[in-house]
């Protein structure tokens, strides 16, 4: 009334709540169906080959007891291409295992005094590792006595990897000799009796000479490793030292089950020269312990 504007006709549709809920449910279902169709992917069908001898895939036949007698001939005859691939893969694994089993180069020198203490305290008393420098300063010149006391109190000293590698090589030599003897007949063993039956085992010769000061002026010289010199007895070496340096010399038990020769007086350099000349030990196999560092005599 009294207005010139035109009103567009509108149609209002009223629905009940039950119909509205039905329409919304149908809409959700259609959306879920569309999403599932989008996510669906094609599934690749594979054909798995099974061995007719053991019923396992060829990759696992080698782990069974009948691989050499049943599985291998069947696979080689019926599927030579798969047999060739598996053989090449198996060969590559063997080569990788051989590379992994190669031993890393061992240490070229024995432990220093500090390293020996670190290994010892690391095994028995880890809380004292940080105090090793103070212990070395306190027992300067008395390191051997310190190790003897530690072994008596706590137990055997950890083995030096340098000497452990030497023992492993010796064991390998012994096993080779045993295998050779095992393959010989009784007649051959009888022929080997006597001087030819003796097997000579190679031992790496390494002699370490150490000087330990006692009561300021007095000192002793300790020689370790003379038992690694072929055809040499420690008692004879001790007598030769006593005669050469006109002083007392004795053989004692050292830490780790080794033997050492204790010579009265400071004769570190003279003893090294005497060992090289008298017992024909190579100069590069004799080491002088200079404040914990091993210096070759040659």
In whole angstroms, the N-to-C terminal distance is 129 Å
What is the C-alpha radius of gyration, as a whole number of Å? 41 Å
Largest beta sheet, briefly?
6 strands, mixed
Given as residue ranges, the uncertain stretches (5+ residues, pLDDT < 50) are 190-201
Helix content: 40-55%
Structural class: alpha+beta
Arithmetic mean pLDDT: 75
Count of individual helical segments: 10
| Broad shape | elongated
> H/E element string?
HHHHHHHHEEHEEHEE
Description:
With 298 residues, the protein is of the alpha+beta class. It has helices at 17-39, 67-78, 80-101, 113-124, 132-138, 143-154, 161-182, 186-191, 234-245, 268-278, and strands spanning 207-214, 218-224, 249-253, 259-264, 286-290, 293-296. It has a six-stranded mixed beta sheet with strand order 3-4-2-1-5-6, covered by helices on one side. β3 (249-253) and β4 form a beta hairpin. It is elongated. Mean pLDDT is 75; it is low at 190-201.
Write the layout of secondary structure elements.
Layout: H1 17-39, H2 67-78, H3 80-101, H4 113-124, H5 132-138, H6 143-154, H7 161-182, H8 186-191, E1 207-214, E2 218-224, H9 234-245, E3 249-253, E4 259-264, H10 268-278, E5 286-290, E6 293-296
Parallel strand pairs: 1-5
Antiparallel strand pairs: 1-2, 2-4, 3-4, 5-6
